[in-house]
Specification:
Layout lengths: L2 H13 L3 H18 E8 L2 E8 L9 H10 L5 H27 L1 H8 L6
Antiparallel strand pairs: 1-2
Length: 120
Amino acid sequence: MTIEELAGVQESLLKSSKSEDILERQRKLLRELEERVATIEVVKDDRLEKVYFDAGKMPKNLREHMKKGLLWSVDRSSPADQIRDFVEQSEELHKNMLYQEHLDSNYLYRVRFERPPRRP
């Protein structure tokens, strides 16, 4: 379901007549939005701004150590270098995550790496 479709559902809910039905559907809609929408914080003109984006199609295998690695390895010598390096590293991280997702979907790979090692 796209964000536009979710907004349409929200509008149709407001036209519904039962208040309990509206509340339950709104809760479900909010849960779905929480799963689909991500935010980043950006400093612009000395003000902190939140940017929201659709994260529904992003790989789900971003680990905490990967986030920290990206956070602490970005070149901070100038604001332009910081953005450029962040975008470059993010693109590379995204490619690696997509590849890992592909491997995880492969049955033989899952069997090989998810099983505990055999004991002699």
